[in-house]
Amino acid sequence: MTDEFEAARLQREIQQYLGLTPEQLRFEFREVEGLTRLDLITVNPRHHQNFLFRYETGRDEVECLQKMLDYVKRFRDTESSYTLQWRSRGDRELQTSYFRAHNVYEALDKLYFGRDLNAITVFSVVLNPSS
Predict the structure, then answer these.
(1) Distance between CA atoms of 17 and 96, rounded to whole angstroms?
(2) pTM across the whole model
(3) Is 6 exposed, middle or buried (0-12, 13-18, 19+ CB in 10 A)?
(4) 10 with 3: CB under 8 angstroms?
(5) How far apart are CA 103 and CA 62, in angstroms?
(6) What is the CA radius of gyration of the chain?
(7) CA distance 47 to 67
(8) pLDDT in tens, 46-65
(9) What does the alpha-carbon distance between residue 38 and residue 31 come to, in Å, rounded to a whole number?
(10) Closest CA to 47 of 13, 69, 24, 30
């Protein structure tokens, strides 16, 4: 039972550190090759699209969450900021999303996570100046 409480505590801490509401963050766990994988998904409150924030693997949920918390505390110092402009197929409105990633490919992977590559058209990817 203590693992459940620890997992819940870590989830709250990650959410608070990111400054997001519970509705804007999903913790999805699954087994991959004998390990636990956590996909941390953000939900945009404006257009309700889901994006991969980051994934971590570990022995169990608590280890994954601890790794995610460690990452969340330092990612702004280690990754670049990207602005992506895109549109869903059949939608007229251009959307703008922001991602932290090591490179353009990782930013695009986060945008396309869980989607058919033909479901979105990307119009621009911009590396934002670092502050």
Answers:
(1) 23
(2) 0.86
(3) middle
(4) no
(5) 28
(6) 16
(7) 29
(8) 888 899 999 999 999 999 99
(9) 9
(10) 24
Of residues 49, 50, 53, the one with CA closest to residue 15: 53
Q: How many CB atoms lie within 10 A of CB 40?
A: 23
Distance from C-alpha of 29 to C-alpha of 56, rounded to nearest angstrom: 10
Edge-to-edge strand ranges of the sheet holding 120-127: 95-101, 80-88, 120-127
Pure H helices in 19-129:
61-78, 104-112
CA pair distance 53, 20, nearest whole angstrom: 12
Cross-strand partners of 83: 98, 126
For 102-119, write each residue's pLDDT tens digit.
Answer: 999 999 999 999 999 999
